[in-house]
Design brief:
By secondary structure, the protein is an alpha+beta fold. The chain is built from two helices and two strands; from the N terminus they run αββα. The model has no long low-confidence stretch (mean pLDDT 88).
């Protein structure tokens, strides 16, 4: 039996972050985003949904990604 709190802690706290500076209108790809454990930002479940989309604003390196960035 898996403790539900451990499941949430380890698997649902993964978030999408940038690993490079992303400029406005730049296409998001797997080379400029990464997944880190955090409590803020867009969930890692959405990783493949944001690939290929263009950013609406400049995003700094190691910043969390949110829905309003696209």
């Amino acid at each position: 039996v898996i403790n539900i709190y451990l499941f949430h802690y380890f698997f649902l706290t993964l978030k999408v972050y940038t690993n490079k500076d992303i400029k406005k209108e730049e296409v998001i790809n797997n080379k400029n985003i990464d997944i880190f454990r955090s409590k803020i930002g867009l969930s890692a479940d959405n990783y493949f949904k944001i690939l290929g989309r263009k950013s609406k604003k400049n995003i700094k390196k190691f910043s969390p990604i949110y829905n309003n960035f696209f």
